Amino acid sequence: MATDMALVLENLLRFYVFDAKVMICVGAGGGQLAGYGWVARKVIAVDPDGAALATLAERIRAVGIEDKFVVVQKDFMVVTERADVVLFEFALHEMLLPDAALAHAGTLAPDVVIIDHAPGSPWAHVADEAEKVVASWEAVSARGVRRQEDYDAVQRFASYEELVQKIKGQGAEAIRRIEPWRGRTNITIPMAYRIAQL
Fold first, then answer.
1. The dihedral of CA 162, 52, 128, 194: what is its sign?
2. What share of the chain in percent tops pLDDT 70?
3. Torsional class of 179: left (φ above 0), alpha (ψ -120 to 50), beta (otherwise)
4. Domain boundaries, the chain
5. pLDDT-derived band of residue 6, with 50, 70 and 90 as boundaries?
6. Helix 98-108 crosses helix 130-143 at what angle (to 10 degrees)?
7. Which overall architecture, per CATH, does domain 5-120+127-153+191-197 show?
8. Could you read off the pLDDT of 54-113 as tens digits, one per residue?
9. Cα–Cα distance, 149 to 128 (Å, whole number)
10. What is the number of other CB atoms lying within 10 angstroms of the CB of residue 128?
């Protein structure tokens, strides 16, 4: 795995108590942090990407928590289910209108939690997402943050080819930005991230 997602999950579960709560997880496809399903009462996993949701389904089946999950392939902005908490899982920066997504989340649950890349993260720069990350955290700040914490992680890749596979969906600029690692192995790129509760 590119980064220690077990530690990221541990930090998320320490930051906010999901125990026995109904969650709406935005950007849940892929299932990197799906371990919150061990403590939640129910997880409504929302992602527009069917392939990512198929990966999530495999992961939750493999660890035996599929009975906790309802997998929903649709845009978050049309979700109407109610919950105790909406979690944006490294997804808010991908929203076209992060302020509107946060406002919508507030109509679905009393608590909104965001875990996403932090402004200034070297990984966000490499992935050509730095501007989107800044805009999403500005939208969070504008809504009134109850609490937030910053964390550091590292993206690790055994080879340049593995890094290309991770980054290729980000476009030509991201591919250009990883060029200095061409031909290298054991690549590490710092990834700062932040967790906030509204």
1. negative
2. 98
3. alpha
4. 5-120+127-153+191-197
5. confident
6. 40
7. 3-Layer(aba) Sandwich (3.40)
8. 999 999 998 899 999 999 999 999 999 999 999 999 999 999 999 999 999 999 999 999
9. 23
10. 17
